[in-house]
């Protein structure tokens, strides 16, 4: 009789909870006993810890990563008539916030191999929109897809040439770095998310905004707290209610204690995958000097559905990020130029397959996944 092997989940929140249970529960219990569930002391403590971790001067915690993007755009005064350049291949929220505040998302294709916005295509699109004159080029939101920081050096040059506000959507890359500069300090304003599957995650919704600019930080904090000024009573702006719960801050503080080790473990898992798979499928590039947070490990395969089914039969969970690029979603088609306008993103959406990735993977498990991938693509 063959031995039945346990199924391999895509991410393993269970293993993490078992490893961190005493510290998470001690943190939660303190909040429950103190009863300060909204903007309790853990929220300020977390903001300080996150600022220290990233090297950014200010960290403003908010309710989720989508609000973080929206608040950053509101603080910049982006609105109707403005073009905001976004990668065509991302989670929908990157474009959603742009449309939500009345501006127009302009889709830019991604680079081969990085899954991130292609700086050459970005420059072309900005020049096209400027020449056309219908919309004002106003902002660019690079996304650090699957954990890998975008090419901020090139993008900052384009932003400067065209007077664009540069906002980094680092929802998937918290913990990543370029050289010795961490995500959070790679752009004038950076946002992240603590949704349960992200690299640093709480047990619900959460997000944060990072900047070195003190005036801008004050405006964003004001917007996130109903537009109230420093006195907490007088509404100085039309804002929104976007706070990180104290209980979620407590969970994040507990997880932050082991976060560096978790990042290292994800990096090791990515290395095992790459060694086994690089000659078999299109595996994500590992680039010296660019440290991915490896929140997702995505390969590109032909006959994806068949590969996915074969992995499922072997007890291996996979996911597809993303089944369609944003410009081909019905709600966003009107902002884009239809099929064929972002070919690299469109091809990626047909081939992308995310394999199990988390900090509690061992080499044997990664080996099992790689064997199954090799058998399926053979
Ligand atoms: C998850 C995610 C968001 C949104 O974060 P939420 O906390 O779920 O609102 C935005 N952008 C990208 C690229 C994401 O992956």
Mean pLDDT: 97
Number of helices: 12
Q: Can you give the helix content as a percent range?
A: 40-55%
Task: Identify low-pLDDT runs.
Answer: none
Give the percentage of residues in beta strands: 5-15%
- How far apart, in Å, are the first and last alpha carbons? 26 Å
Strand order of the largest sheet: 1-9-8-5-4-2-3
H-E order: HHEHEHEHEHEEEEEHHHEEHHEH
Global Rg: 21 Å
> Structural class per helix/strand content?
alpha/beta
Largest sheet: 7 strands, mixed
Number of strands: 12
Name the bound molecules. Answer: pyridoxal-5'-phosphate
3D shape:
globular
Task: Kindly summarize this structure in a few lines.
Helices cover 41% and strands 13% of the residues.
Describe this structure in words.
By secondary structure, the chain is α/β, with parallel strands linked by helices. It contains twelve helices and twelve strands. It has helices spanning about 15-35, 40-55, 65-75, 95-100, 120-130, 150-160, 215-225, 245-255, 260-275, 305-315, 345-350, 365-375, and strands spanning about 60, 80-85, 105-110, 135-140, 165-170, 175-180, 180, 190-195, 205-210, 290, 295-300, 350-355. The chain has a seven-stranded mixed sheet, with helices on both faces. A three-stranded antiparallel sheet has the order 7-6-10, with no helix packed on it. The chain has a two-stranded antiparallel ribbon with strand order 11-12. The protein starts with 12 loop residues before the first helix and ends with a helix. The structure holds pyridoxal-5'-phosphate. Pyridoxal-5'-phosphate (PLP) binds near residues 66, 93, 94 and 195.
């Amino acid at each position: 009789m063959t031995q039945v092997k346990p199924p391999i989940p895509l991410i393993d929140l269970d293993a993490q909870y078992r490893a961190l249970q005493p510290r998470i529960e001690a943190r939660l219990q303190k909040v429950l006993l103190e009863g300060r569930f909204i903007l309790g002391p853990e929220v300020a403590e977390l903001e300080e810890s996150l600022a220290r971790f990233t090297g950014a001067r200010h960290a403003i915690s908010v309710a989720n990563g989508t609000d973080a993007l929206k608040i950053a755009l509101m603080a910049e005064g982006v609105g109707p008539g403005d073009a905001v350049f976004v990668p065509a291949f991302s989670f929908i929220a990157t474009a959603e916030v742009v449309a939500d505040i009345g501006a127009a998302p302009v889709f830019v294709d991604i680079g081969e191999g990085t899954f991130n916005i292609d700086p050459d295509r970005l420059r072309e699109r900005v020049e096209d929109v400027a020449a056309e004159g219908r919309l004002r080029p106003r902002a660019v939101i690079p996304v650090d897809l699957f954990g890998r920081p975008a090419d901020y050096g090139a993008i900052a040059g384009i932003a400067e040439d065209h007077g664009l506000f540069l906002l980094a959507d680092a929802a998937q890359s918290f913990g990543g770095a370029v050289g010795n500069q961490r995500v959070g300090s790679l752009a004038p304003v950076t946002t992240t998310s603590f949704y349960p599957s992200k690299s640093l995650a709480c047990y619900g919704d959460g997000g944060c905004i990072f900047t070195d600019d003190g005036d801008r930080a004050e405006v964003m904090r004001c917007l996130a707290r109903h537009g109230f000024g420093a006195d907490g009573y007088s509404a100085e702006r039309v804002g929104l209610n976007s706070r990180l719960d104290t209980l979620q801050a407590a969970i994040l503080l507990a997880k932050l204690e082991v976060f560096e080790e978790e990042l290292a473990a994800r990096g090791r898992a990515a290395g095992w995958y790459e060694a086994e798979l690089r000659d078999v499928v299109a595996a994500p590039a590992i680039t010296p000097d660019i440290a991915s947070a490896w929140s997702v490990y995505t390969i590109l395969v032909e006959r994806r559905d068949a590969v996915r089914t074969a992995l499922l039969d072997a007890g291996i969970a996979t996911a597809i990020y993303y089944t369609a690029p944003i410009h081909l979603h019905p709600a966003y088609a009107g902002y884009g130029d239809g099929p064929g306008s972002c070919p690299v993103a469109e091809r990626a959406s047909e081939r992308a397959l995310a394999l199990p990735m988390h900090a509690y993977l061992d080499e044997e498990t990664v080996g099992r996944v790689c064997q199954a991938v090799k058998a399926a693509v053979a």
